[in-house]
Amino acid sequence: MGRPLRELGLAIVLAVSVTASGAGSSSVALADLPREAIVTHELIHAGGPFPYAKDGGVFGNRERLLPGKRRGWYREYTVRTPGARDRGARRIVCGGVEVRSPENCYYTEDHYSSFRRIEK
Q1: How far from 72 is each of 7, 85, 95, 97, CA to CA, in Å?
Q2: How far apart (Å, rounded) are the C-alpha atoms in residues 79 and 92?
Q3: Catalytic residue among 7, 103, 111, 119, which?
Q4: Poorest-confidence range of 17-31, 62-76, 101-115?
Q5: Residue 76 appears among annotated catalytic residues
């Protein structure tokens, strides 16, 4: 097998293992997130106020990267990106019955292409 085929095979194995492992298998400590994400996380638990009108809106999980839950379980919040002219790509998505006390929160820095579960 030539090198390009081996590399492609490795890439496929990695992609399958990441998909099969499910969301939340990758995690990040809250303290290791960018300062703006820590501030957003604090605002979520305080109930706001949030700087963007869309913050706190329902996140549909259309990408199906987070554990499957009923509609309305997940809510999304913008993580400010310094220098960005719009909301940027960074978000925190939290899920739970109580909006101010979510069961789990996830961080994405690539606009929902990947998530890491936030560990306190």
Answers
A1: 40, 29, 8, 9
A2: 7
A3: 111
A4: 17-31
A5: yes
- Does any domain span residue 68? yes
Catalytic residue, chosen from 76, 103, 109, 119, is 76
Residue with tokens 């919040």: 77
Domain of 108 in residue numbering reads as 26-119
Is 109 catalytic? The answer is no
Q: What is the tally of structural domains in the chain?
A: 1
Look up the pTM and report it. Answer: 0.79
Q: b/e for 55-87, b at 16 or more Cβ within 10 A?
A: bbeebebeeebbeeeeeebbbbbbbbeeeeeeb
Q: Domain holding 69: CATH number?
A: 3.10.450.30
